[in-house]
Amino acid sequence: MDPRALPRRLADLPDAEIAALRAAFVRAGFDERSLASCEAIAPRQLDAVRVPAVLHELSTRGDDGSRLLAVFAYGGEVATADLTAALGAEAFAVLVRVGALVVDGARTRAALRVLPYRGVWIASDEFHDDDPVMGPGMTTDELANSLSFAGVTSLVDVGCGAGSLALVAKASGVAEVVGTDIDPRAIDYARFNGRLNRLECEWWVGDLGAPVAGRRFDAVVSQPAYVAQPEDLEGSTFLHGGARGDELAVRLLGQLDALLNPRGRAWVLFDTPDPGARQIADRVNAGLGTGRFDLCLVVTPGNSAADQSIGYASLRDGGLGRVYAETYAAYRRHFARLGVERVRHVLVHARGTTGRAAGFVVEPAGLAGFSGALLERLLDAVAWSGATDEELLAAAVRPNEAARLVHEQSLSASGDVRLWVRFERGAGVDQELSDTAALLVTCLRDHRPLRAAIAAWAEEVELDGAEAQAQVLMFVRQGLRSGLLVVG
Ligand SMILES: C[S@@+](CC[C@H](N)C(=O)[O-])C[C@H]1O[C@@H](n2cnc3c(N)ncnc32)[C@H](O)[C@@H]1O
Fold first, then answer.
1. Which residue, by CA, sits nearest to atom 6 of ligand 1?
2. b or e along 114-129 (b: 16 or more beta carbons within 10 Å of the residue's beta carbon)?
């Protein structure tokens, strides 16, 4: 049996056999809650360190869900009799027949991965050297967190891999969902995963948006392959995006104009070797090639060249042996040639413009605080910064709800007091405020529309109306652009 054809055999299973498999997963309690408890063991360690600890923990539990997690999520072996009982005889036999389970006498292991992910199950390859298909990972999660499907009726997931994001979108109620990927094996997994989860999507093999050329969508989501490829290292389709890494992502940006409806939105996540926000913004704008988008760039520090090299070398050789050392050196030399000490990790959120084309860059410590709803509000806010005075005076301008006013007092003899706006979970860039600006922010919290907040503030600081209005309008425009203030 050709192991490379496993996803095709899975995708072509009859309905009844897929239903038996699904029923077995439900019955066994093979879900995210039990997965999360395993992921909490030795977090952030390399798999070589972490996985044996997780498998040990699972072996002490002895319930069906733990057995499925050991085999499907962590590549462990389980007693054949226990696994047959956990899956039921029918589902077990189906998986053995297609080569998804490998029975070695009394022990059985899986030849693929299956992860419970945001309410769906995603089957993908176990990591191997032969161009594997990727299931959901940490960066899939970052992108999923930043999405919002409100008002989205059609979506294309470009470079969908095993279909994780497309299926999450479909499960969230998006009516028309399409996944594309250049790797036919990825699309076979995606087809299987769609059927396993009873979610109907369209799946196409092809380069970026080419399979859906001529069609337009409300949303494009993509985490294309974006790792820099050393020239002396064989490439992986799921990983490498070009010599710099970001070439594929930038090429996709150039297709957004044709892929999106006039008010459509795109989320594209990638790494880039460019060191600063300015260069990144220039490259993104050049890639887009059009001013018809409001643009929010979330630029986070990303990994150091050394950490990046460790991470990708350990993928090739989980046992951290000779191949690991050679691969580490190849990445390290490549990053040195590129002059890269640290890659930047970038989330581009583009939205068909409201008419006043807007763009802004935030540089938080990480992506944790960036929900889709927050990105939308930030984009709206930036667009509002270009509104007329009259429009702004009538608008409900208020502080961003992720912002906190922090009163900081030195314990030195001077007892200095400073006021800051700090953002929860890195959802904005912290800034210091003067006393009067802090007072204005609280007036904006308590009074709407802006005209009313200005009147309240003018009284507090004893300024005449016209002077107060001029100062506040300037502060508000700047606050809208920096993410401190939002409208609505
Ligand atoms: C980092 S993986 C992301 C998979 C999935 N979207 C996720 O978030 O879990 C990148 C995917 O891009 C696909 N890919 C690479 N080059 C491509 C291309 N030129 N056109 C379409 N897909 C491509 C790979 O096969 C891989 O599935």
1. 160
2. bbbbbebbbbbbebee
